[in-house]
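Structure (tokenized):
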């Protein structure tokens, strides 16, 4: 399934107040998102959200395109790190954040407090066959209608096949490359 993500820096408390009034709160999560560079052109990602850990792998040359990635749920986070090390992977970046998840219409909305990077709003939806420019325009109008206070310009625009939420506003994948 093609996914669309739109990420913008926000005023955390202003955005939180508006989302609590206008969207459905789902949950608060602690997330550790680690990227690993591997042999050749392999990249691995270990995504721990609360007590659930997912491991995914892809290739460097497909980072900015519709990507083919393989993913599995792992039972032991530390053992996964040790296995990646044994296979020749090395950690290239790790991001820690607290995420408040909301839902409004067809958007999954995340309000992220990213350690050392700031506060971000992430809109995510199924992309289907819709062009990225149109998805971006629709996301910007949606944020405008909600009157969420932004900081600066949008950090990124990505479409991908990731089956879990990524953090495109980080430079983690770029650093792994």
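Design, position by position:
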């Amino acid at each position: 399934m093609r996914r669309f993500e739109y990420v913008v820096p926000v005023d955390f408390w202003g955005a939180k107040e508006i989302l609590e009034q206008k969207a459905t709160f789902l949950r608060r999560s602690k997330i550790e998102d680690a990227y690993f560079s591997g042999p050749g052109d392999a990249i691995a990602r270990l995504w721990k959200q609360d007590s659930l850990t997912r491991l995914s792998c892809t290739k460097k040359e497909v980072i900015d395109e519709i990507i083919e990635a393989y993913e599995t749920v792992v039972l032991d986070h530390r053992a996964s790190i040790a296995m990646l090390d044994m296979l020749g992977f090395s950690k290239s970046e790790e991001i820690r954040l607290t995420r408040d998840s909301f839902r409004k219409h067809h958007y999954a909305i995340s309000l992220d407090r990213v350690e050392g990077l700031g506060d971000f709003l992430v809109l995510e939806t199924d992309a289907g066959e819709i062009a990225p420019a149109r998805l971006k325009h629709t996301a910007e109008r949606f944020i405008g209608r909600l009157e969420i206070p932004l900081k600066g310009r949008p950090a990124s625009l990505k479409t991908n096949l990731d089956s879990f939420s990524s953090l495109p506003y980080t430079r983690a994948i770029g650093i792994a490359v």
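Reviewer-requested clarification: The longest strand covers residues 90-104. The domain at 3-176 is CATH 2.40.320.10 (Hypothetical Protein Pfu-838710-001).
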